[in-house]
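PT: before anyone asks, these are the final sequences, not the draft ones from last week. 308 residues across everything. Please model them as a single complex and drop the result in this thread when it's through.
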Amino acid sequence: MGALVLAVTAAGGCGQEVAGTPNAGPTGVGPATSELATVDPCTLLSDAEIEALGFRPDTRQPTETLGLVGCAYLGPPYGILGSLSVEKEPEETIADYAARSQTFGGFRQNDVNERAGAQLEVADDGTDCAQMVDAGSGTVQVSLIIREPGTLDPCAEALRVMQMIEPELPAVGS
Amino acid sequence: MSVPNFTQASQGLAAMQQQQHGLNAAVTAGDLWMEPDVAERATARCEQQIEEVESILDGLRDLGQARKFGDNADGRAAAMAFRDAAVTGENSVRGVLVKSQEVLRNMAATYRAAGRAAAQAEQANQQMFSGRAE
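LR: through. Structure below.
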Protein backbone atom coordinates (compact mmCIF):
# COMPACT_ATOMS: atom_id res chain seq x y z
CA MET A 1 0.00 0.00 0.00
CA GLY A 2 1.38 3.38 -0.96
CA ALA A 3 2.05 5.98 1.66
CA LEU A 4 -0.87 8.25 2.34
CA VAL A 5 -0.45 11.98 2.26
CA LEU A 6 -2.23 13.80 5.03
CA ALA A 7 -2.83 17.51 5.00
CA VAL A 8 -2.47 18.96 8.46
CA THR A 9 -3.59 22.47 9.17
CA ALA A 10 -2.56 24.12 12.39
CA ALA A 11 -4.59 26.76 14.16
CA GLY A 12 -1.96 29.40 13.42
CA GLY A 13 -2.70 29.19 9.72
CA CYS A 14 0.39 27.21 8.87
CA GLY A 15 -0.18 24.29 6.54
CA GLN A 16 2.14 21.45 5.77
CA GLU A 17 1.92 18.03 4.19
CA VAL A 18 3.01 15.03 6.19
CA ALA A 19 3.90 11.87 4.33
CA GLY A 20 3.31 8.54 6.04
CA THR A 21 0.83 5.85 7.02
CA PRO A 22 -1.81 6.65 9.63
CA ASN A 23 -1.05 4.98 12.93
CA ALA A 24 -3.62 4.48 15.62
CA GLY A 25 -0.86 4.68 18.21
CA PRO A 26 -0.94 2.94 21.58
CA THR A 27 -4.61 3.76 22.17
CA GLY A 28 -5.67 2.34 18.77
CA VAL A 29 -8.04 -0.59 18.38
CA GLY A 30 -5.54 -2.95 16.80
CA PRO A 31 -4.85 -4.18 13.29
CA ALA A 32 -6.65 -3.13 10.14
CA THR A 33 -10.28 -4.24 9.94
CA SER A 34 -10.81 -7.85 8.83
CA GLU A 35 -12.36 -8.50 5.45
CA LEU A 36 -15.19 -10.16 7.36
CA ALA A 37 -16.33 -6.65 8.35
CA THR A 38 -17.33 -6.00 4.74
CA VAL A 39 -19.45 -9.17 4.54
CA ASP A 40 -23.18 -8.60 4.95
CA PRO A 41 -24.70 -11.95 6.01
CA CYS A 42 -28.14 -10.64 5.05
CA THR A 43 -27.20 -10.55 1.37
CA LEU A 44 -25.34 -13.87 1.10
CA LEU A 45 -28.57 -15.59 0.02
CA SER A 46 -30.82 -14.09 -2.63
CA ASP A 47 -34.58 -13.95 -2.14
CA ALA A 48 -34.96 -16.66 -4.78
CA GLU A 49 -32.52 -18.92 -2.91
CA ILE A 50 -34.27 -18.32 0.41
CA GLU A 51 -37.58 -19.26 -1.19
CA ALA A 52 -36.08 -22.32 -2.85
CA LEU A 53 -34.89 -23.46 0.59
CA GLY A 54 -38.48 -23.27 1.86
CA PHE A 55 -38.18 -20.01 3.82
CA ARG A 56 -39.89 -16.64 3.37
CA PRO A 57 -37.71 -13.66 2.37
CA ASP A 58 -40.38 -11.27 3.73
CA THR A 59 -39.73 -12.56 7.26
CA ARG A 60 -36.09 -11.36 7.14
CA GLN A 61 -35.18 -10.20 10.63
CA PRO A 62 -31.81 -8.66 11.58
CA THR A 63 -30.16 -10.50 14.46
CA GLU A 64 -27.49 -9.44 16.92
CA THR A 65 -26.69 -11.67 19.89
CA LEU A 66 -23.42 -11.47 21.82
CA GLY A 67 -21.28 -10.88 18.74
CA LEU A 68 -23.31 -12.97 16.30
CA VAL A 69 -24.68 -10.62 13.64
CA GLY A 70 -26.83 -11.42 10.63
CA CYS A 71 -30.34 -12.20 9.48
CA ALA A 72 -32.97 -14.83 10.26
CA TYR A 73 -35.85 -16.08 8.12
CA LEU A 74 -38.95 -18.04 9.05
CA GLY A 75 -40.57 -20.66 6.95
CA PRO A 76 -42.24 -23.97 6.84
CA PRO A 77 -39.60 -26.23 5.37
CA TYR A 78 -41.58 -29.41 4.68
CA GLY A 79 -44.62 -27.83 6.31
CA ILE A 80 -43.20 -27.31 9.80
CA LEU A 81 -42.43 -23.83 11.13
CA GLY A 82 -38.74 -23.30 11.61
CA SER A 83 -35.99 -20.76 11.07
CA LEU A 84 -32.87 -20.24 9.04
CA SER A 85 -30.13 -17.80 10.08
CA VAL A 86 -27.03 -16.57 8.30
CA GLU A 87 -24.64 -14.80 10.67
CA LYS A 88 -21.03 -13.82 11.21
CA GLU A 89 -18.93 -13.81 14.37
CA PRO A 90 -15.90 -11.57 13.83
CA GLU A 91 -13.93 -12.73 16.86
CA GLU A 92 -14.44 -16.45 17.37
CA THR A 93 -12.83 -19.06 15.14
CA ILE A 94 -13.60 -22.77 14.85
CA ALA A 95 -10.72 -23.37 17.26
CA ASP A 96 -12.36 -21.08 19.85
CA TYR A 97 -15.66 -22.98 19.60
CA ALA A 98 -13.79 -26.30 19.72
CA ALA A 99 -12.15 -25.23 23.00
CA ARG A 100 -15.58 -25.07 24.69
CA SER A 101 -17.21 -27.84 22.65
CA GLN A 102 -18.24 -29.80 25.74
CA THR A 103 -20.71 -27.08 26.67
CA PHE A 104 -22.76 -27.72 23.51
CA GLY A 105 -25.23 -30.49 22.76
CA GLY A 106 -23.02 -31.61 19.89
CA PHE A 107 -19.89 -30.43 18.08
CA ARG A 108 -18.16 -32.02 15.08
CA GLN A 109 -15.39 -30.48 13.00
CA ASN A 110 -15.65 -30.83 9.21
CA ASP A 111 -14.68 -29.11 5.96
CA VAL A 112 -16.82 -27.15 3.57
CA ASN A 113 -15.32 -26.79 0.09
CA GLU A 114 -11.90 -27.42 1.71
CA ARG A 115 -12.44 -24.68 4.31
CA ALA A 116 -12.22 -25.58 8.01
CA GLY A 117 -15.67 -25.86 9.52
CA ALA A 118 -17.76 -27.38 12.29
CA GLN A 119 -21.32 -28.36 13.05
CA LEU A 120 -22.65 -27.21 16.40
CA GLU A 121 -25.91 -28.28 18.07
CA VAL A 122 -27.11 -26.35 21.12
CA ALA A 123 -29.81 -28.86 22.04
CA ASP A 124 -29.15 -32.56 21.62
CA ASP A 125 -32.49 -33.63 20.16
CA GLY A 126 -31.89 -33.06 16.45
CA THR A 127 -33.89 -29.81 16.27
CA ASP A 128 -31.06 -27.33 15.67
CA CYS A 129 -27.70 -27.13 13.99
CA ALA A 130 -25.23 -24.46 12.93
CA GLN A 131 -22.73 -25.13 10.15
CA MET A 132 -19.86 -22.70 10.63
CA VAL A 133 -16.66 -22.06 8.72
CA ASP A 134 -13.61 -19.94 9.40
CA ALA A 135 -13.72 -16.69 7.40
CA GLY A 136 -11.61 -13.55 7.80
CA SER A 137 -10.91 -13.01 11.48
CA GLY A 138 -13.78 -15.19 12.72
CA THR A 139 -16.57 -17.40 11.44
CA VAL A 140 -19.65 -17.33 9.23
CA GLN A 141 -22.52 -19.56 10.33
CA VAL A 142 -25.72 -20.98 8.88
CA SER A 143 -28.19 -22.18 11.55
CA LEU A 144 -31.35 -24.17 11.14
CA ILE A 145 -34.05 -24.81 13.72
CA ILE A 146 -36.94 -27.20 13.22
CA ARG A 147 -39.81 -28.07 15.56
CA GLU A 148 -40.27 -31.74 14.81
CA PRO A 149 -37.13 -33.86 15.26
CA GLY A 150 -36.61 -36.36 12.47
CA THR A 151 -38.49 -34.46 9.78
CA LEU A 152 -35.21 -33.33 8.25
CA ASP A 153 -31.56 -33.28 9.25
CA PRO A 154 -30.79 -29.65 10.23
CA CYS A 155 -27.03 -30.29 10.02
CA ALA A 156 -27.24 -31.67 6.47
CA GLU A 157 -29.45 -28.76 5.42
CA ALA A 158 -27.17 -26.17 7.07
CA LEU A 159 -24.19 -27.75 5.30
CA ARG A 160 -26.01 -27.54 1.96
CA VAL A 161 -26.68 -23.82 2.49
CA MET A 162 -23.09 -23.20 3.58
CA GLN A 163 -21.81 -24.90 0.41
CA MET A 164 -23.87 -22.37 -1.55
CA ILE A 165 -22.44 -19.27 0.17
CA GLU A 166 -18.88 -20.41 0.96
CA PRO A 167 -17.38 -19.11 -2.34
CA GLU A 168 -18.49 -15.57 -1.35
CA LEU A 169 -16.63 -15.61 1.96
CA PRO A 170 -13.26 -13.94 2.61
CA ALA A 171 -10.15 -16.07 3.00
CA VAL A 172 -9.26 -17.24 6.50
CA GLY A 173 -7.18 -14.66 8.38
CA SER A 174 -7.76 -11.92 5.78
CA MET B 1 -25.07 -24.80 41.31
CA SER B 2 -28.81 -24.14 41.24
CA VAL B 3 -30.29 -24.01 37.77
CA PRO B 4 -33.08 -21.49 37.24
CA ASN B 5 -36.18 -22.91 35.66
CA PHE B 6 -39.41 -21.53 34.37
CA THR B 7 -41.89 -23.73 36.22
CA GLN B 8 -44.12 -20.79 37.11
CA ALA B 9 -44.37 -19.68 33.46
CA SER B 10 -45.14 -23.27 32.54
CA GLN B 11 -47.94 -23.38 35.12
CA GLY B 12 -49.34 -20.10 33.80
CA LEU B 13 -49.45 -21.61 30.35
CA ALA B 14 -51.26 -24.68 31.63
CA ALA B 15 -53.95 -22.37 33.05
CA MET B 16 -54.25 -20.65 29.67
CA GLN B 17 -54.56 -24.05 28.04
CA GLN B 18 -57.45 -24.88 30.37
CA GLN B 19 -59.22 -21.65 29.44
CA GLN B 20 -58.73 -22.44 25.77
CA HIS B 21 -60.28 -25.89 26.26
CA GLY B 22 -63.31 -24.20 27.85
CA LEU B 23 -63.61 -21.85 24.89
CA ASN B 24 -63.35 -24.75 22.49
CA ALA B 25 -66.07 -26.67 24.34
CA ALA B 26 -68.34 -23.61 24.12
CA VAL B 27 -67.81 -23.40 20.37
CA THR B 28 -68.48 -27.12 19.93
CA ALA B 29 -71.68 -26.84 22.00
CA GLY B 30 -72.86 -23.92 19.85
CA ASP B 31 -72.75 -21.49 22.78
CA LEU B 32 -70.04 -19.34 21.24
CA TRP B 33 -69.69 -18.04 17.72
CA MET B 34 -67.87 -15.15 16.08
CA GLU B 35 -68.52 -13.02 13.03
CA PRO B 36 -66.37 -14.63 10.31
CA ASP B 37 -64.25 -11.51 9.70
CA VAL B 38 -63.61 -11.10 13.45
CA ALA B 39 -62.67 -14.79 13.69
CA GLU B 40 -60.35 -14.37 10.71
CA ARG B 41 -58.58 -11.42 12.32
CA ALA B 42 -58.24 -13.25 15.65
CA THR B 43 -56.85 -16.31 13.86
CA ALA B 44 -54.35 -14.17 11.92
CA ARG B 45 -53.20 -12.53 15.16
CA CYS B 46 -52.60 -15.95 16.75
CA GLU B 47 -50.60 -17.04 13.72
CA GLN B 48 -48.57 -13.83 13.84
CA GLN B 49 -47.79 -14.48 17.50
CA ILE B 50 -46.69 -18.03 16.72
CA GLU B 51 -44.14 -16.55 14.29
CA GLU B 52 -43.03 -13.95 16.82
CA VAL B 53 -42.35 -16.75 19.32
CA GLU B 54 -40.41 -18.60 16.61
CA SER B 55 -38.15 -15.54 16.19
CA ILE B 56 -37.52 -15.52 19.95
CA LEU B 57 -36.65 -19.23 19.77
CA ASP B 58 -34.16 -18.45 17.01
CA GLY B 59 -32.47 -15.83 19.20
CA LEU B 60 -32.46 -18.24 22.12
CA ARG B 61 -30.40 -20.71 20.10
CA ASP B 62 -27.81 -18.02 19.38
CA LEU B 63 -27.67 -17.23 23.07
CA GLY B 64 -26.99 -20.87 23.92
CA GLN B 65 -24.12 -20.94 21.48
CA ALA B 66 -22.57 -17.49 21.80
CA ARG B 67 -22.55 -17.11 25.57
CA LYS B 68 -18.98 -17.41 26.86
CA PHE B 69 -18.41 -18.22 30.50
CA GLY B 70 -14.67 -18.78 30.60
CA ASP B 71 -12.38 -21.68 29.84
CA ASN B 72 -12.22 -23.27 33.29
CA ALA B 73 -14.27 -25.70 35.37
CA ASP B 74 -16.55 -23.00 36.81
CA GLY B 75 -17.04 -21.42 33.41
CA ARG B 76 -17.97 -24.73 31.84
CA ALA B 77 -20.40 -25.55 34.67
CA ALA B 78 -22.02 -22.13 34.25
CA ALA B 79 -22.31 -22.67 30.50
CA MET B 80 -24.01 -26.06 31.01
CA ALA B 81 -26.40 -24.61 33.59
CA PHE B 82 -27.23 -21.74 31.25
CA ARG B 83 -27.89 -24.12 28.34
CA ASP B 84 -30.10 -26.24 30.58
CA ALA B 85 -32.16 -23.24 31.69
CA ALA B 86 -32.41 -21.83 28.17
CA VAL B 87 -32.83 -24.89 25.97
CA THR B 88 -32.47 -28.41 27.30
CA GLY B 89 -34.02 -28.46 30.78
CA GLU B 90 -37.49 -29.81 31.52
CA ASN B 91 -38.77 -26.31 32.36
CA SER B 92 -36.44 -24.39 30.06
CA VAL B 93 -37.37 -21.16 28.29
CA ARG B 94 -37.50 -23.10 25.04
CA GLY B 95 -39.93 -25.64 26.50
CA VAL B 96 -42.25 -22.88 27.71
CA LEU B 97 -42.11 -21.03 24.40
CA VAL B 98 -42.80 -24.15 22.34
CA LYS B 99 -45.75 -24.92 24.63
CA SER B 100 -47.03 -21.36 24.13
CA GLN B 101 -46.98 -21.94 20.38
CA GLU B 102 -49.15 -25.01 20.89
CA VAL B 103 -51.66 -22.98 22.95
CA LEU B 104 -51.73 -20.28 20.27
CA ARG B 105 -52.25 -22.90 17.55
CA ASN B 106 -55.22 -24.33 19.48
CA MET B 107 -56.62 -20.84 19.98
CA ALA B 108 -56.37 -20.16 16.25
CA ALA B 109 -58.25 -23.40 15.55
CA THR B 110 -60.95 -22.44 18.07
CA TYR B 111 -61.44 -18.97 16.51
CA ARG B 112 -61.59 -20.54 13.05
CA ALA B 113 -64.26 -22.97 14.27
CA ALA B 114 -66.21 -20.12 15.94
CA GLY B 115 -66.17 -18.21 12.65
CA ARG B 116 -67.32 -21.28 10.74
CA ALA B 117 -70.16 -21.81 13.23
CA ALA B 118 -71.40 -18.26 12.65
CA ALA B 119 -71.17 -18.64 8.87
CA GLN B 120 -73.09 -21.92 9.01
CA ALA B 121 -75.77 -20.40 11.26
CA GLU B 122 -76.12 -17.46 8.86
CA GLN B 123 -76.44 -19.83 5.90
CA ALA B 124 -79.06 -21.92 7.72
CA ASN B 125 -81.06 -18.77 8.54
CA GLN B 126 -80.96 -17.61 4.96
CA GLN B 127 -82.18 -21.00 3.73
CA MET B 128 -84.96 -20.98 6.30
CA PHE B 129 -86.18 -17.49 5.33
CA SER B 130 -85.91 -18.11 1.59
CA GLY B 131 -87.87 -21.36 2.13
CA ARG B 132 -90.67 -19.42 3.85
CA ALA B 133 -90.75 -16.77 1.15
CA GLU B 134 -91.40 -19.34 -1.56
